[in-house]
Amino acid sequence: MGDAFIEMKGIVKKFRGTVALKGVDFEVKPGEIHALLGENGAGKSTLIKILTGAYAPDEGEILVADKSFSSIPVKELADLGISVVYQDLKLAPGVSIMENILMGNLPKKAGMFIDRKAALQLAKEAISKAGVEMDPDTIVGDLKAADQEIVAIAKALSKNAKLLILDEPTALLAEDDVQRLFEILRALAKKGVSILYISHRLEEVFTICDRVTVLRDGSKVWTKSIADVSKNLLIEAIAGSMHAEGDLYYKAPIKDTLLKVEGLSRKPYYQQISFELRGGEVVGLFGLVGGGKSEMLKGIFGDMKPDSGTIYLGGERYATPSPQASINKGIGFVPEDRKSEGFLPRMPIYINANLPAYRRIYARSGWVAPKAEKRRAQALVEGFNVKFSSLEQDIDGLSGGNQQKIVVAKWIGTKIKVLLLDEPTAGIDVGARRDIFRVSRKLADEGKTVMYCSSYLPEIMEVADRILVMSKGRITEEFHRNDGFHEDEIMKAAYQ
Amino acid sequence: MGVRGESLLQANKSGGWKKKLSKFTLPLIMVLMWLIVFMFEPRFLSFENLSNLGRQTSIIAIVAIAQTFVIITRGIDLSVGSTVGLASIISAKLLVAGMPVIPTILISLLVGAAVGIVNGIIVHDAKITPFIATLGMMTILRGATLLQSEGKLISNVPKSISKISESSFLGIPVLLYFLLFIAIIAAIIIKYTVFGRNLFAIGSSEDSARLSGVNVRATTYGAYMVSGLLSAVAGFLLTARLASGIPTAGTGYELDAIASAVIGGASLFGAQGSIIGTVIGSFIMTTLRNAGNLLGIEAFWLQIAVGTLLIIVVFFDQLRKRVK
């Protein structure tokens, strides 16, 4: 080929039984802005990790400037000219722009002192490469999100990047800042820097990118010039023809409204959210990552108060003062970040499984009996197919799927009426996913209600009676199973 | 379900005996230490010396138990030593002024609990890291103690009080009964109450705990309050033991208490620790000092030995966890 800066041929990557990439061919040309699209779990992050040397592919070849590699050596990443700007930027907020840009490569005098003059010079060069002007002595934490993004890009450029990988660069930016970032990216591309652009926002892809590659289920769907692609074609390629895995859905009798939300807002996360959850239904909330779903759920649960709006619980107005109060009222919540908010690390399974029960069941007397606790935990996790060796084992040793099952199971035993699930299947295997589906349907069948939030449409379509679509902090549309779920329509509502 | 049978089998095969063994490592180390010292100096296991060892250990062990409550929540309480000092001076003054024992103890305890709650408020509500919050409190309290006593020793504490520390019951020093009583209550609280579970929960992950309904504020206040309370008990017992109130009493206890808890298996990362471990940790530390005195080893060397022991114990503990 010769004309591509980087070329991947027949890349296969397997993880314990599952195949994350099934023989993907992929190339980025010099000076091109190339979009990489796909749903969560389609293989995007695996591909990026192979490009940055974090993973070695099981099969295939990678050509960087016509030099062949079986895997990218991490140590040579900078020499090869590959740089990544992650979604969370990985900057040190407490120190200056200069020190962030030159972190690890600060020029030295006499072998130990910082050569401030040279450092300033290098930092300024990097900043001007990004096409902006900034005072290198400004503390990064004082900058607004967009400027931090630019610092991260300048840092990447300071290593003479020829390929810049941007992971969701606009996730935290306001509209006019996005335009500013685009100008910078266009100018970089003109200078011959290749940009690999990862985003969920399709409009942006049409605005900024030259070509687009879509991944689905670990395979490449196609690579096309953006001029040959319509939005509908793109959505179809990303979502594919989705078919349910079987017969997990069954209709439960619909009962009274359990939770009603009216005009709930918290800036800048979500605005004017209104909906009802009735006993007997699983309501899907679909929206892109960072679209305000998690904040809204925490608003209802009482952990992050809404600015305005009203919540009714069983017909009565409820002020959501705290998670404790919500749990007492029968609301359960499975947070998105399992590790830091979902379970108790370094604690045994039986304590994790009983955690909310200490408030609901044991608090009256104040006493707990380990034997009874274990019996209770055993009953809870048994209904959930959790694989473990001992109830006293720390939860950390379990697989993500088994951990999540315990996090969900702990709510089942606490007489909840409303269960809020935030990305409950992130990073877990198909079997565990189906167990969580089953429990959601079972709760509905028992007359309870489940709000199932996810940025992965197929699973919502499989489990939900209704789907609310959230886009940019607002609920844009509602779909009913009776009318049939059409993935393209739902996707369109999400990208509105 | 099929999974259950399989899981129980595995538990018996792997988890069981190793866990039991590691449970007994610490007492084994202590007994081994005693035997080694005994070989060099038979007087060590004399009844007299053992009583002495018990007396030496009880007060610091009570402070270490106090510390354990806070360490489990992933906090630290550097003010325990100063609380001991303050309670010691307050009780000495009250006793000298002629107040009976019971009200004296109650007032000391009240002061200790109040100190703890203020610590809890600074840590939880002002969101100042425990290390800094209690470092500040440590300095404040030592200043207050010196002010209260005008920097002077308070003597003439009634004889009946110092009897508490000297007397024995069934041949065992009364101070040890105090320790035993407090340790049992503390162990029950930690193992069998919701409050105990909550201590571990916030030490493991405050966010997870909060989102599962744990009252983080009440639990944090509770941990520091217990710490202040038990430190005040230790302060009173110290006054009894020394038969006087010494304004600098308890200096450095916070570090001994932390070391005892850590040797006993507590982790400064929270969610780990036990009362029995802490008590044994205190005995191991005191044994080193006591044996050193008997064997005529210079006190300065003993300090070096205690520090080394602390590092070695924690190193092996980490090693064990990494292997696991």
Features of the shown structure:
A: alpha/beta, Rossmann fold, 6-stranded mixed beta sheet, 17 helices, globular, B: 324 residues, ABC transporter involved in vitamin B12 uptake, BtuC, 1% strand
Pairing-aware structural class of the strands and helices of chain B? mainly alpha
**Biggest interface and residues each:** A-B, 41 and 33 residues
**The CATH topology of the largest domain in chain A, please?**
Rossmann fold
CATH superfamily annotation of the largest domain in chain A:
P-loop containing nucleotide triphosphate hydrolases
Radius of gyration of chain B: 21 Å
Low-confidence stretches of chain A: none
Which CATH first-tier class of the largest domain in chain A would you pick? Answer: Alpha Beta
DSSP strand tally of chain A: 22
Strand content of chain A: 25-35%
How does this structure look, described?
In chain A, strand 1 and strand 2 (18-28) form a beta hairpin. Chain A has helices at 44-51, 77-80, 97-101, 116-129, 145-158, 175-190, 202-208, 231-239, 293-301, 323-328, 338-342, 349-360, 370-382, 400-412, 430-445, 457-463, 487-494, and strands at 6-15, 18-28, 33-37, 59-64, 67-69, 82-85, 108-109, 113-114, 163-167, 194-198, 211-216, 219-225, 257-266, 270-278, 282-287, 308-313, 316-318, 331-334, 418-422, 449-454, 466-471, 474-480. A six-stranded mixed sheet of chain A has the order 6-9-10-3-11-12, sandwiched between helices. In chain A, strands 18-19-20-15-21-22 form a six-stranded mixed sheet, sandwiched between helices. Chain A has a four-stranded antiparallel sheet with strand order 2-1-4-5, with helices on one face. The model of chain A has no long low-confidence stretch (mean pLDDT 87). Chain A folds into two domains: 6-239, Rossmann fold; 257-494, Rossmann fold. Helix content of chain A is 33%, strand content 26%. Chain A has 496 residues and is an alpha/beta fold. Chain B has one domain (49-323): ABC transporter involved in vitamin B12 uptake, BtuC, CATH 1.10.3470. Chain B has 13 helices and two strands; from the N terminus they run ααααααββααααααα. In chain B, strands 1-2 form a two-stranded antiparallel ribbon. The model of chain B is unreliable at 1-16 (pLDDT under 50). Chains A and B meet through helix 10, helix 11, helix 12 and helix 13 of A and helix 1, helix 8 and helix 9 of B.
